[in-house]
Amino acid sequence: MEKQTRTLVIATKNEGKLREFKAVLEPLGFSAVPVGDIDAAIAEPKETGMTFAENAALKATYYMDKTGYSCLADDSGLIVDVLHGRPGVYSARYAGPQHNDADNNAKLLAELSGVPAEKRTARYACVLVLARPGRELLTAEGTCEGIILNTPAGDNGFGYDPYFYIPEKGKTMAEMSLAEKNGLSHRGKALRKLTDLLR
């Protein structure tokens, strides 16, 4: 295996994201390795970008520089129309620095209290950036449209997935298998665009 091209360091500690990346990248011959397996002592960079693209590029180049490997980073989140785009780039830490999925979802539902279903339109957005030593950045984006429910359904997802309902499928993200989710999710769409570029 050629170090610089076949091993991709994945800039995440999120097991759910890592499973999604592995499911798409490994059949293409890429070894998707979490950054902690390369060097657990690397500190996380501060995500100071104002957009998903800025944060993804920041993480990808940071971990590439630290490890010497090609690095794939994503920045993704939930955009709720009636909340003027919140939580957006703050999706993972919406409830504050000591965030967790339960607290983030509780804050989201509190802000949507009293908002009727037809106004709970939202989308997941993802920007992927691949940083490779000595080469230009590769960028790919994807979105997935849905509606935010009042009550959770399913336990296969993470983050806001149990509340993110996709009308044409009649189920939430968390009610889908990994293969089904990768087929229509924001991250799955971005990954397919990126793998087309890699080919």
TrEMBL record:
The note on cofactor binding and number reads: Binds 1 Mg(2+) ion per subunit.
Write out the catalysed reaction: dITP + H2O = dIMP + diphosphate + H(+); XTP + H2O = XMP + diphosphate + H(+); ITP + H2O = IMP + diphosphate + H(+)
List keywords of the entry alphabetically. Hydrolase, Magnesium, Metal-binding, Nucleotide metabolism, Nucleotide-binding
Signal sequence residues: none
Which InterPro entries would you find in this protein's record? Answer: dITP/XTP_pyrophosphatase (IPR020922), ITPase-like_fam (IPR029001), RdgB/HAM1 (IPR002637)
Does Ribonucleoprotein count among this protein's keywords? no
Q: Which superkingdom?
A: Bacteria
E.C. numbers: 3.6.1.66
Cofactors: Mg(2+)
| Function summary | Pyrophosphatase that catalyzes the hydrolysis of nucleoside triphosphates to their monophosphate derivatives, with a high preference for the non-canonical purine nucleotides XTP (xanthosine triphosphate), dITP (deoxyinosine triphosphate) and ITP. Seems to function as a house-cleaning enzyme that removes non-canonical purine nucleotides from the nucleotide pool, thus preventing their incorporation into DNA/RNA and avoiding chromosomal lesions.
Give the HAMAP family listed for this entry.
Non_canon_purine_NTPase
What name is this protein filed under?
A: dITP/XTP pyrophosphatase
